[in-house]
Amino acid sequence: MNSGKFVIGVLGTSAIQKDLKAMESAKQVNGMSIEVKQFNSAAEISDCHILYVASSERGNIDKIISKTKSQQVLIVTGNPGLAKKGAAINFVEAEGKIKFELNQKNAEARGLKGAGSLASLAILV
Fold first, then answer.
1. Domain residue spans in the chain?
2. Which secondary structure element, helix H or strand E, spans residue 68, and what is its range?
3. How high is the pLDDT of residue 112?
4. Taking the CA atoms of the chain, what radius of gyration do you get in angstroms?
5. What gap in Å lies between CA 65 and CA 38, rounded to an integer?
């Protein structure tokens, strides 16, 4: 992975891509510039730190998990049930607010640390 950039991948078409692109030139993560990569299929996924899976790709979650299984990538979705199928973070609407589910087991299986500190804010799956 390019050590000089913090790479956020977006798989599929999502409105979030516009917001991420706006952050790309304005923000940094631990001193690294942000790079947003667009992937149109699971086969195209390459190294990234975070992978956001758009709703259009929810049916491909098994392929996505298989393609990234050896990578330390945080998989983020906004699709009901995907935290149980391999995503680490899944955004949901609950009580009229946007909240997130956290599957610590999925995060830890990829060698990601810090999931414990998120647990107090999350809906645990």
1. 5-124
2. helix 61-68
3. 86
4. 14
5. 17
- For residues 30 and 58, the answer to whether their CB atoms sit within 8 Å is no
Say if CB 123 and CB 100 are below 8 A apart: yes
Q: Give the Cβ contact number of residue 35 at 10 Å.
A: 16
Does residue 12 sit in helix, strand or coil? Answer: coil
Rounded-to-10 torsion of CA 62, 65, 69, 72 = -170
φ/ψ (deg, to 5) at 83? -70, -25
Q: DSSP letters of 25-52?
A: HH-EETTEEEEEEEESSGGG--S-SEEE
**What is the reported pLDDT for 95?**
86
Cα–Cα distance measured from residue 91 to residue 77, given in angstroms and rounded to the nearest whole number = 6
**In this predicted structure, what is the pLDDT of residue 120?**
75
What CATH homologous superfamily does 5-124 map to? Answer: Response regulator (3.40.50.2300)
Spatial distance between the Cα atoms of 95 and 3, rounded to a whole number of angstroms: 40
Q: What is the value of pTM for the model shown?
A: 0.88
pLDDT at 8 over 90: yes
